[in-house]
UniProtKB/TrEMBL annotation:
Transmembrane segments: 12-32, 38-63, 75-93, 105-127
Protein name: MFS transporter
Pfam families: MFS_1
Natural source organism: Streptomyces caledonius
Cross-referenced Gene3D superfamilies: MFS general substrate transporter like domains
Subcellular location per the Swiss-Prot or TrEMBL entry: Cell membrane
Topology class, membrane: Multi-pass membrane protein
Domain of life according to the entry: Bacteria
Keyword terms of this UniProt record: Membrane, Transmembrane, Transmembrane helix
InterPro entries the record matches: MFS, MFS_dom, MFS_trans_sf
Boundaries of every Major facilitator superfamily (MFS) profile domain copy: 1-138
Length: 138
C-alpha cells in the first residue's frame, strides 16, 4: 500500500497506534487514584477509548503487511486472538472481584493499564509494515 506523502508507514501504524495505547495506559493507571466524579469518567473513557482506536490501526497494518493471497487468513487469526481475549477477560475480572471484593475492579484496571503500556511500547518499537511485508513476501 502506498503511504501518504511524507508519512512513513511505520510512523502511521506503529507510532500512532503505540502512542494511543500508551495514552490509554496512562489514563487506566491514573484511574484508581482519581477522585470520584468527572475526572473518573474522563479517565475511563480516555483509557478504554484510546486503546480501542488501535483496532482500526491493527487492521490496516495487517492488510499492508500480509500478501494479498494471505490477507483473509491473517485477519481471521487476528480476530480469533481478539475474540479469545474478549472471552477470557470477564472470567479473569470476575475472579479478581471474587478474591478481592470491589477492589478487584481496581486491580483489573491496573492490569489493563499495564498491558496497554506493554502493547504501546511494543507497537512503537516493533511495528514496521514495510520490513514485515518484505519478509512475508519472500
Amino acid at each position: 500500500m502506498a503511504d501518504a506523502p511524507g508519512i512513513a508507514s511505520r510512523w502511521a501504524r506503529g507510532r500512532v497506534g503505540g502512542i494511543l495505547l500508551t495514552m490509554g495506559a496512562g489514563a487506566c493507571l491514573a484511574l484508581p487514584s482519581a477522585p470520584a466524579g468527572a475526572a473518573t469518567a474522563v479517565l475511563l473513557v480516555a483509557g478504554f477509548g484510546l486503546a480501542g482506536a488501535m483496532s482500526s490501526v491493527a487492521v490496516t497494518t495487517v492488510m499492508e503487511m500480509a500478501p494479498a493471497d494471505r490477507r483473509g487468513g491473517t485477519l481471521g487469526i487476528m480476530n480469533a486472538v481478539v475474540t479469545t481475549a474478549g472471552l477470557l477477560a470477564p472470567t479473569l475480572i470476575g475472579r479478581l472481584v471474587d478474591l478481592h471484593g470491589a477492589s478487584g475492579y481496581q486491580y483489573a484496571v491496573l492490569i489493563t493499564g499495564g498491558l496497554l503500556l506493554l502493547g504501546g511500547i511494543a507497537a512503537v518499537t516493533l511495528i514496521d509494515p514495510d520490513r514485515d511485508a518484505r519478509l512475508l513476501s519472500a
